């Protein structure tokens, strides 16, 4: 298994297609079923006693015809079900970016690839810094997302955000990126408040042979990647890879160089081996080293690495047991501001099983993080060193309410963290399969964002060393109660429509309170918010070799002070999101095996601080020189010489320049 | 009422179809593995260009053949019913292992014909026939595409040069989804088929 069972649980088709109609639920359900006064039910009773209720719509032929090759390749044909369904039939707002889409986008880093995902807020501040969120609250190091690479959680417990400049892998070996918008906390736990991003690399067996990637351009001055995959004994495979990015400086609004030269190298490996026909082991790791330019000060130095081991064992025909351990170290030094060495140890056990009509997955684990900081003239953490532990356990069960029609998923995460003790994050999801390839789902979830060292231990220092802003031991978890629902339909082959809508209520959001009598501003929890939004996606495949898609996102987020709040910022530091976003993509295979891809995005203005609306275009043209050797021309942000996407206005705001590069990819 | 009658109009024929086949029709539905493989075969046809000579007349159907015992039952016929490829309808033909292969644009050689695969392929290599198998030595024996299972999922590998020699052009889309089977490409192992 190439990714965590948790991801497996939510996304693997087989989990959601296994409600064999012959295993009808007991009498309660039968009564419920009888009471549903559908013409269909009456007909079934009259025409075909004993036939499963879903059969008329589940003509496998019709379903099969609708599936793309990629979807066909994801169907588990052995384990459980008889009903093929695409992976996107989960009761959540899910987008899957395939490795192929990512390759054809010309993205060079994971963060850049996320621009392809409809429904995310993705803004780039400069060469190294990104603001990425789902369903709003976007800031640099946005703090309400769970992000994982092959089952390894990569948001930092320092501030719950992701340092996107170091979270990367060789994109050529990425199998897919799963993006869930909305809370996934019942599965993934604290921090999966507004969404989950799950980056899954290919198994070593699927990345065999040699691949070389070289590129040069005006902004992406040099990029290089290499991978070699080979066999490991009779039942194993491995690969090793390396990549290097050198990016030229962007420009300041004033026209000067932004001094954000980006240089980073990364290398890693993965080994997968079958221990027996029923069990397998994966070992993988990465190392990186980078030097990232900063305006008017010394370079930021980053380095780190991780090692992950996972054993999966099939304990019964439909049950898996998985044990996973990883160690992760990251070091970051931002001169005059911040220096931290973070060590994380994580152990995780999961068991998924199918018993009669129930799909159950449960697990438990422990994570320990040791953060060692060095005080700077502007920021210190008190204590400078702190170890925190996180106990986690979860259980989820999916079962059919109406056979092959209505499915209910109930689950909860139970966590004990160092700051607020126990947190319970339950969720209930229901999905209805309707005639004509329609699916309706709805969910209610509670999720929390745990406090971090930033909110507990940070002391921001002003001139003369006085504390101007401080964390507080009284900081509590931010809470979300989320209501969401969605609709998906594939009316005819080659056409798919997805809608999702949500209404979220947040409480105890992070505030910046000015105490009386006046002292340093204190991070507290006196803000609340409501958000609502709509996400619509249409995908069309007019002919086999052309894919088109259009996505529109509407977001209304209102952050406000709670009664009695002493907050001085009004939530201006907690989120800065566009109300409207439009994403249009086209992908075509032209004669001569030439690949043409384009992605247009339009993002409405941001308010706090103001950033003007913008529209931009990325495009790629690739053509094969010979089998295995592809040359491509890639352009990013083609419509303007340069444009800003985030950050306070002024002469020093960084603007992203048009980028054009030529790349070579060679498999042999 | 109108709505209901439309629903009936859809459901009734579907019921009749599913009941009409035979009382045991459901039980005889091919396994999910073969349902998926049938869908793959149908999809393959969309991503392959045959040489013009493969179609003697403008109305010549794209003919999918199954050698020997057909594991798909009636599924393949139902799958292609009403579908067209470049304006051509589809046809499904079952051919005896020693039968006539000319006119087959795609030939599926099921596992049950494993022992006879080399002989079947020897006769299929001439015309522009895309050969698809489902056992490990199929490519080595001269086949063009081969199904295999990985983690319970149906995957496929392609022997590109074999297809090119037969005048077929396989879309890069298909090639990218296929397993890189370089070893098979460079080291044919015909002995694998020797009984």
Task: Give structural notes.
By secondary structure, chain A is mainly beta. In chain A, the strands form 4 sheets. Chain A has a 22-stranded antiparallel barrel. Chain A has a 5-stranded mixed β-sheet with strand order 1-6-7-4-5. The relative contact order of chain A is 0.12. Chain B has helices spanning 2-20, 25-28, 32-46, 75-80, 117-124, 160-165, 172-177, 182-186, and strands at 48-49, 62-67, 84-85, 88-95, 106-109, 130-133, 145-150, 153-158, 169-170. In chain B, strands 3-4-2-5-6-7-8 form a 7-stranded mixed β-sheet, with helices on both faces. Chain B has a two-stranded antiparallel sheet with strand order 1-9. Helix content of chain B is 35%, strand content 21%. Residues 1-28 and 181-195 of chain B have low confidence and may be disordered. The N and C termini of chain B lie far apart (66 Å). Chain B contains 8 helices and 9 strands. At the A-B interface, α4, α5 and α6 of A face α1, α3, α4, β8 and α7 of B.
User: What distance lies between the first and last C-alpha atoms of chain A, to the nearest angstrom?
Assistant: 26 Å
Tell me roughly what share of residues is in helical segments of chain A: under 10%
Relative strand content of chain A: over 45%
Q: State the separation between the terminal residues of chain B, measured CA to CA.
A: 66 Å
Oligomer: heterodimer
Treating each run of at least 4 consecutive H or I residues as one helix, how many helices of chain B?
8
Number of helices of chain A: 10
Number of strands of chain B: 9
**CA-atom Rg of chain B in angstroms:** 18 Å
* Global morphology of chain A: globular
Strand order of the largest sheet of chain B: 3-4-2-5-6-7-8
What sort of overall outline of chain B do the alpha carbons produce when their principal axes are compared?
Answer: globular
What's the main sheet of chain B like? 7 strands, mixed
How much helix is in the residues of chain B? 25-40%
Q: What value does the Rg of chain A take, in angstroms?
A: 25 Å
Helix/strand-derived category of chain A reads: mainly beta
Structural class of chain B: alpha/beta
């Amino acid at each position: 298994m190439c990714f965590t069972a948790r991801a497996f649980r939510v996304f693997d088709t087989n989990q959601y297609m296994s409600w064999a109609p012959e295993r009808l639920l007991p009498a309660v359900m039968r009564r419920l079923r009888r009471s549903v006064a559908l013409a269909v039910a009456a007909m079934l009773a009259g025409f075909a006693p004993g036939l499963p209720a879903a059969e008329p719509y589940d003509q496998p032929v019709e379903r099969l015809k609708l599936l793309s090759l990629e979807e066909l390749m994801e169907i588990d044909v052995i384990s459980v079900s008889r009903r093929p369904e695409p992976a996107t039939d989960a009761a959540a707002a899910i987008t899957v970016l395939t490795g192929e889409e990512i390759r054809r986008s010309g993205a060079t880093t994971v963060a850049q690839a996320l621009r392809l995902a409809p429904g995310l807020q993705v803004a780039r501040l400069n060469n190294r810094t990104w603001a990425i969120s789902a369903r709003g609250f976007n800031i640099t190091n946005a703090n309400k997302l769970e992000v994982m690479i092959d089952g390894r959680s990569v948001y930092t417990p320092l501030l719950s955000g992701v340092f996107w400049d170091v979270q990367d892998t060789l994109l050529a070996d990425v199998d897919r990126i799963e993006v869930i918008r909305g809370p996934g906390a019942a599965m993934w736990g604290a921090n999966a408040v507004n969404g989950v991003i799950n980056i899954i690399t290919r198994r070593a067996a699927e990345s065999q042979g040699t691949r070389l990637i070289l590129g040069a351009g005006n902004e992406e001055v040099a990029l290089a990647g290499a991978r070699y995959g080979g066999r490991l004994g009779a039942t194993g495979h491995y690969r090793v890879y390396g990549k290097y990015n050198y990016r030229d400086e962007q420009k300041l609004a004033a026209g000067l160089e932004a001094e954000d030269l980006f240089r980073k190298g990364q290398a890693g490996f993965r080994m997968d081996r079958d221990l027996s026909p029923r069990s397998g082991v994966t070992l993988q790791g990465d190392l990186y080293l980078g030097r990232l330019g900063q305006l008017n000060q010394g370079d930021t130095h980053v380095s780190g690495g991780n090692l992950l081991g996972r054993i999966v064992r099939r304990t019964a025909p439909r049950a898996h047991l998985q044990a996973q351990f990883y160690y992760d170290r990251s070091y970051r030094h931002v001169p005059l501001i911040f220096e931290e060495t973070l060590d994380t140890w994580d152990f995780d056990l999961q068991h998924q099983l199918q018993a009669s009509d129930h799909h159950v997955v449960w697990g438990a684990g422990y994570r320990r993080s040791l953060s060692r900081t060095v005080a700077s003239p502007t920021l210190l953490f008190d204590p400078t060193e702190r170890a925190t532990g996180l106990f986690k356990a979860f259980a989820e069960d999916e079962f059919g309410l109406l056979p092959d029609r209505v499915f209910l998923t109930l689950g909860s995460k139970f966590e004990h963290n160092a700051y607020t003790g126990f947190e319970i994050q339950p969720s209930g999801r229901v999905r209805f399969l309707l005639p004509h390839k329609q699916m309706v789902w709805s969910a209610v979830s509670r999720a929390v964002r745990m406090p971090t060292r930033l909110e507990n231990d940070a002391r921001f220092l002003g001139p003369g060393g006085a504390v101007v802003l401080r964390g507080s031991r009284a900081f509590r978890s931010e809470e979300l109660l989320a209501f969401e629902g969605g609709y998906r339909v594939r009316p005819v082959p080659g056409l798919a429509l997805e809608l999702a809508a949500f209404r979220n209520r947040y409480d105890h959001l992070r505030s910046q309170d000015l105490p009386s009598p006046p002292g340093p501003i204190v991070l507290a929890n006196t803000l609340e918010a409501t958000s609502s939004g709509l996400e619509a996606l249409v995908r069309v495949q007019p002919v086999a070799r052309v894919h088109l898609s259009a996505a529109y996102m509407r977001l209304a987020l209102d952050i406000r002070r709670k009664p009695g709040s002493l907050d001085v910022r009004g939530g201006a530091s907690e989120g800065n999101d566009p109300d409207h976003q439009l994403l249009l993509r086209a992908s075509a295979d032209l004669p001569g095996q030439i690949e043409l891809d384009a992605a247009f995005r339009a993002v409405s203005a941001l308010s706090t601080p103001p950033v003007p609306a913008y529209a931009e275009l990325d495009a790629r043209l690739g053509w094969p020189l010979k089998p295995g050797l592809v040359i491509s021309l890639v352009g990013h942000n083609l419509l303007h010489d340069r444009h800003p996407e985030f950050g306070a206005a002024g002469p020093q705001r960084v603007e992203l320049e048009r980028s054009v590069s030529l790349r070579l990819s060679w498999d042999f | 009422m109108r709505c209901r009658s439309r629903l009936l109009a859809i459901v009734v024929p579907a019921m009749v179809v599913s009941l009409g086949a035979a009382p045991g029709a459901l039980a005889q539905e091919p396994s999910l593995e073969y349902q998926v493989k049938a869908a793959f075969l149908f999809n393959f046809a969309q991503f392959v260009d045959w040489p013009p000579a493969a179609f003697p007349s403008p109305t010549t159907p794209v003919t999918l053949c199954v050698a020997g015992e057909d594991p798909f039952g009636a599924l393949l016929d139902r799958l292609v019913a009403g579908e067209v490829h470049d304006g051509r309808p589809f046809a499904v033909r079952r051919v005896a292992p020693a039968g006539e292969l000319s006119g087959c644009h795609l030939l599926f050689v099921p596992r049950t014909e494993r022992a006879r695969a080399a002989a079947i392929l020897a006769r299929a290599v001439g015309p522009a026939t895309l050969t698809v198998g489902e056992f490990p030595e199929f490519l080595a024996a001269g086949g063009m595409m081969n199904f295999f299972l990985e983690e319970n999922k149906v995957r496929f590998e392609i022997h590109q040069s074999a297809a090119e020699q037969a005048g077929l052009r396989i879309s890069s889309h298909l090639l990218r989804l296929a397993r890189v089977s370089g070893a098979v490409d460079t080291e044919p192992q015909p002995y694998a088929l020797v009984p």
